[in-house]
Amino acid sequence: FSMAAEARRPTIEVKSMGENKISFILAGTDASIANTLRKAMISEVPTIAIDLVEIEENTSMLADEFIAHRLGLLPLVSNRALDPLFELAFRDANGQIKGFQWHHESDEEANCEIKFEMDVRNNFEDPMDVTTNHLKLSHEHGGVDQSNCGVHPVEYDPDYPVVIAKLKKNQAIKLTAIAKKGLGRMHAKWSPASGIVFTYEPVVRLNYDKLERLSTEQRRYWIKLCPPGLIRFNESSGQVEVEDKIRVGIAYSGECEKVAKNEFGPEFSDLVSVKPKCGPDGQPD
């Protein structure tokens, strides 16, 4: 049983998880696995997005294609994305690639799609915002009841829905949109995340010998100039300490090292050092 074999047994520790963001530590492996996981999260997680748009009326300032593109990029919340009966777009029941179809002859195909409708007209003098609140879920599609399908636009803030277009007086937009299940590798609109990045866990070390050569005021001044998230000044002890929760972006920015060099001279550029945490094989973990 070798250390190399042990290093290939990855573990995941979730550090924080919110409604729109998750942060976790991947250990016991190397960057190739981390990058593979990142790519899989971007391109292999099924989501639902608007794929087909049929515009019946559009007298706004935006072209039909522009509105269709904006609708396609609207993030949709869906409880059906992982439903095995909700097939991926472009494939039939046998897994064969199929062309886009607007009208459906069977309930089986309609089960794979969600229909939205929009019919809005500005009858007032002031400009009007057309938002996701105007994108209504159709009650049925192809004879299939959609009332409890669980698909709707994301509501980041109910008071500020996503603006799709603006209408002047007597302008209108009327359309039908079909949402399908897909993967990020088919089109970016099906990607479940706006950004997924990884970096090596930092190990922060302070040079206490050189810190002792600085006065308390110099230490405090140095910390004041450094961006927050890496080190802090302890007022009780007068010492410099590493933050409990390190901001990785700040750790690898080199800003604290630059400040020390500029304020105290080149010999103090190593007051703090940041290196990737290494595993048992000596490689970054």
Q: How would you characterize this protein structure?
A:
The protein has helices spanning 3-7, 31-43, 64-72, 107-110, 208-211, 216-225, 248-251, 255-264, and strands at residues 11-17, 22-27, 47-58, 76-77, 113-121, 128-131, 136-137, 140-141, 144-145, 152-153, 163-167, 172-182, 202-206, 231-234, 239-242, 272-276. The chain is of the alpha+beta class. The chain has 3 domains: 11-43, no CATH class; 47-184, RNA Polymerase Alpha Subunit, Chain A, domain 2 (Beta Complex); 202-276, no CATH class. A hairpin with a 4-residue loop joins strand 14 (231-234) and strand 15. The chain starts with a helix and ends in a 9-residue tail after the last strand.
Q: How is the topology of this model organized?
A:
Layout: H1 3-7, E1 11-17, E2 22-27, H2 31-43, E3 47-58, H3 64-72, E4 76-77, H4 107-110, E5 113-121, E6 128-131, E7 136-137, E8 140-141, E9 144-145, E10 152-153, E11 163-167, E12 172-182, E13 202-206, H5 208-211, H6 216-225, E14 231-234, E15 239-242, H7 248-251, H8 255-264, E16 272-276
Antiparallel strand pairs: 1-2, 3-12, 4-10, 5-7, 5-12, 6-11, 8-9, 13-16, 14-15
